[in-house]
Structures are given as C-alpha cells and as structure tokens.
Amino acid sequence: MSHFALKVQNMSCGYGSKFHLSNVDFTIDQGSFTSIIGPNGAGKTTLFRAISGMLSIENGDVFLEGENLKTLSHKARARKIAIVNQSVEAGAMRIEDYVLMGRLPYRTPFSFFETKEDYEIAEENMRLTGVWEKRHKLMDQLSGGEQQLAAIARALTQKTNLLLLDEPTAHLDISHQMKVLNLVRRLNHEAKLTVLLIIHDLNLASEYSDQLIMLKEGTIFAQGTPEEVLTYNNIEEVYNTVVITRSNPMSGKPFIFPVSEVTLREDISKKTTQSAI
Question: For position 277, what pLDDT does the model report?
C-alpha cells in the first residue's frame, strides 16, 4: 500500500464554461488531518466533488491509496473513501438503518439482509459517536449536531481509511462544533484515520489540522502547516479583509482576529493624531 492516502496530480475540473479548478497538486499522507480553506467561490466544493468521484476530472489524476480514481468502480471507491456531507438528508429513517447503509459497499450479489458482522460494526460506531441510545429514533427527529454524529457513524461503518467531510460544523453551535471535531480528531489520532475536512472557520481549521490547503479562485494559493498558511498577509490577500493573527496561548496554533471597518478607521485616526502631535 502507498504511504499516501490521497494524491491529486495536476488536476483540472469544473462546470463547462463556468467555474474551473486548474492544475491542482497536493498529497495527503496516511493518518494526517488536512483542512481545505478559502472564501466562497474559491473551489472547495468543486474539489470535494472531484475527489469523491461526483464530478468528472478533465485533466490530471486523483489517486486513492495508490489507485487511480478513474479505474475504480463506485463500490470500490466507497471502500476507500467515506463522505460526510454538510447537510444530512435521511428523512423518516431510523438511525440504526441509516448507519447500516455504510455496509452497502460490502454487500455481495443477491445479499439483501445485513449480516451479524454488519450489525456489530454499526453498533460499535454508534456507541463511539454517542448515538447508540437513540438508534430507534428517526433521523428527522434529531438536532443538527446529532445528525452529523449519525452521519459520521455511517461513514465509519464503511471501514475506510480516508474520511472526507464537507463543512460538517457549518450550521452547528460552538458546543456541537467542538463535539464533532473532537471526535474526528480523536479518530484521527487513535485509529490513524486520515481526515480531509472542508471548512470555513479558520480558527477551527487551525486548531485541529496538521496541514492546510488554501484555495483562491480555483487554484491553490498556499499549503503547509497552519503556522505557514495562516499569516495575516495570506489571509488579507485571499479573503480581502483586514485581520490580526496571534498564537493560541494553549495550543500555539495561529488564531485570527477580524478587524471591523470602524475599528480600523478609529485606529488610523488615532495614529494620525499622534503623529501630528
């Protein structure tokens, strides 16, 4: 098996004459935690769809554990990469049935029922994510945070080495954001699960990630550790906004402080007055 979980090589893809990603290159090592960041319209969702096989690749290649994505069947791909989308759409389905869907890639022809092993794997992951006691409830009866935990349980039930999450904390309060990301980080550390996270919140991306990939207008603007990527120069150029960066006193990771227009104007005015004196 290759030492990398995911390799994107000179890849281009997009939507006809509309938005395109161009010449994207990066490698994600096995067992790493990587976040993809960038402003709206930078290409995060397009990249997500290309890696997951939902969007055709025009040029270049995507390799999953050394195998070219183009050569893999849908079932083979689902055994290598598990996906948690931003919105969970399961309707009036029991949590247990929803989580058991993660075993579909392992069904043999004419096998219509879950095996004992399927139930054991599903139970393990429902307990791990904290939804086991609610397994008989319907998905549409859960809060947004609980739905995300159930979605992670289903993804883990696929038994892949790579977990791809698209904005899993977007609509959650800070308590559920931390619960979801703490769980994912723990799985990354303890189970050596490779994580690729698409996220808007730069401070959460900084705190939890080993590596960041910053996109701007369909290309990679910067990649590296949070300390290397989240400089105020990079953020101001990519997001076109003024920020201040400091180190988190506990973790040492970069922390970004936004600066409002009023505060910036007052600061400039104060400095102008002082210089005049």
Answer: 62
